[in-house]
Design goal:
The chain is of the alpha+beta class. It has helices at 11-69, 72-96, 100-109, 138-149; strands at 117-123, 129-135, 160-168, 174-181. β1 and β2 (129-135) form a beta hairpin. The radius of gyration is 51 Å and the shape is rod-shaped. It starts with 10 loop residues before the first helix and ends in a 7-residue tail after the last strand.
């Protein structure tokens, strides 16, 4: 047998019930949406506040760094560091350049025989090299003079040689002082 059900309630009551259900559902969704919006706003606000704190701390650190950089102590240290850097660059430049004195020394020591000892070497402000040499062998001294004066031996790099002094000691040691002019000598 089939059951028969009779609804004796008015249809307005049923419609009101459905409308109340819909309203309840939309109210729940509105509350959930409002809660999500409030949550997102709270997160954004907390991020903004934390960024403000970080930014203010960074600004304070930056101000401290600026104060340190502008302090006289730091400026003095920076000045010393720059001066030392410039000096090191100058020394490096001087070490890589061959000076006129080193050029003259290398040229003239290559012409000195084994038996002749150089006891003095200088280059004056005009670029003239002064050599003091000694030996106990007159033929070695003669060979030295020949090598300095021979254009083939000195590669035509010596323009003039003056014997400023020549002496012999009691112990048969010959001493001589020479003035040697090289091409490109600096003149004032």
């Amino acid at each position: 047998m089939t059951k028969l059900s009779i609804n004796l309630l008015p249809p307005e009551l049923e419609a009101a019930k459905k409308q109340k259900k819909r309203f309840s559902k939309s109210l729940k969704l509105s509350i959930i949406f409002l809660a999500v919006v409030i949550g997102v706003a709270a997160v954004v606000l907390s991020i903004r506040l934390s960024q403000n704190v970080i930014l203010s701390n960074t600004t304070k650190d930056l101000e401290k760094a600026k104060a340190t950089l502008n302090s006289p102590e730091y400026n003095q240290k920076e000045g010393v560091a720059i001066t030392l850097k410039n000096r090191l660059e100058s020394i490096g430049t001087l070490l890589t350049q061959e000076t006129y004195a080193s050029y003259a020394f290398n040229l003239l020591t290559g012409l000195v025989p084994a038996n002749v000892n150089l006891t003095g070497f200088s280059v004056d402000s005009k670029g003239v090299a002064k050599i003091t040499a000694e030996t106990n062998n007159i033929s070695a001294l003669d060979s030295f003079f020949n090598q300095i004066l021979n254009p083939d031996k000195n590669q035509k790099k010596i323009t003039a040689v003056n014997i400023d002094s020549l002496s012999r000691s009691k112990s048969d040691i010959y001493r001589t002082e020479l003035s040697v002019n090289l091409p490109g000598a600096k003149t004032k």
